[in-house]
Amino acid sequence: QVQLVESGGGLVQAGGSLRLSCAASARTFSTYAMGWFRQAPGKEREFVSTIRSGGDTYYADSVKGRFTISRDNAKNTVYLQMNSLRPEDTAVYYCAADLPPYRNYASRSSYDYWGQGTQVTVSS
Residue 77: is its pLDDT beyond 90? Predict the structure, then answer.
């Protein structure tokens, strides 16, 4: 069983920045693909970004150029640096782990473990 704990959410003005963290309780963390998803009220959970064990990264078009995903395998942690935030980025952000062999990085069903989520609110 893998436990994922997100932190770093909060309230920020449009144009501001936040950095989310997700700490994993797994000795084999370095082998996982780690993803970030978000869910706004009344909407489905959507893909934001993923980083695979080799460092390959993927982003949704809506966040490309503004968000950066990274990982620190020594700390079993994945990060999401969010810059130039917009009100439409307001959502609960979830991290998720996809154990190898990797599947479709943008699909929720590809991920085996999920965190509890952290709220990000961007005011206009």
Answer: yes
